[in-house]
Automatic annotation (TrEMBL):
Transmembrane feature ranges: none
Domain of life per record: Archaea
Lineage: Archaea, Methanobacteriati, Methanobacteriota, Stenosarchaea group, Halobacteria
Name under which the protein is recorded: HEAT repeat-containing protein
UniProt-annotated stretches for the region Disordered: 1-43
Pfam families the UniProt entry points to: HEAT_2 (PF13646)
Compositional bias annotation for Basic and acidic residues: 32-43
InterPro entries: ARM-like, ARM-type_fold, HEAT_type_2
Amino acid sequence: MDRDGGPAVEQQQRSEAVDLPLVLSQLDATDPETRRDAVRRVRDGVDEEPCTYMPTVPKLRELLSDPGFELREAVAYSLAELAAEAPSDVAPSADAIVAAAADDQESPTAGELLRCLAAVTEERPTAVVEHVPAIVDLTEARDGDVHGIRTMAHVARARPDALEPALSLLTETVAPEPDDGAVAALSVLGRLGRSTAELSSLVFLDHAVELADREDAELRRNAVGCLADVAHRHPERVEPACPRLRSALESGDPETRANAAVTFGRVAAVEPSVVEPVRSQLLALLEDDHRYVRASACTALGHGDVTEARERLSTLATGDPEPTVRDRAAWACGELS
């Protein structure tokens, strides 16, 4: 029979068994073995009770900054686990984390610290903006470490222009034989292409086109999404890729269908004829179950001057249950009148 309170009581009892003041004082001890024992205790404890050990973050940061401390990997692991639990509590240590990782780029410690930064920037995307060049160097030294790429992807949500130093690395990551970080890298490249950054090269577009018909659903979705983002600022550079995106309009994944329709719409804004070969597919998407797909199809048909869509667009403009679809359909009707 379960005891009264069950797991909640057991968790509380375990937490009460942790003498946190003692652990904190041991992390400050002058005796090296005492500090090592405290780090081992934190390392073991964060797996089950990360919240309990959150106050150790400043002490761990100090130990991390000591290149002579023998258990830096354990410190880095603990910080990564604590960042996964409470990113904002670890974010103030971002400067020290980047510096420590840069000290020994190829070590397991650096790998754990990149994992820590990925967790921090998921919630606080601007926490490491000033360190982007260092993170790029670190990620490159670690053969495109996926946690480094994910850190960049999180930063790009808030400051895509800051990722310009990563262009070469990201392009290599999405090359014809993509690395593990390709899905996240495509997201960064799309945001970069859409930003005001003056990019030295758009070679990555060729790789995105090649990935846009891969069987891997997530890779394909982000490849098409990357093209849609770049088409926002550089529609003329994406236009040659449009014939390769026809099948994406019929993907089983609604986000991929929507991304493809967005791409056609943005290119059609400057070259309406691009819609002609996919006119029937876009018309079919007006009946799609997903609102974003329907809305994106409306935009593409409006930009593409597909007059035969006027009646169906008019019906959507007044009768679709989704406001976004009604607005896009009404706009398209205005373009076709």
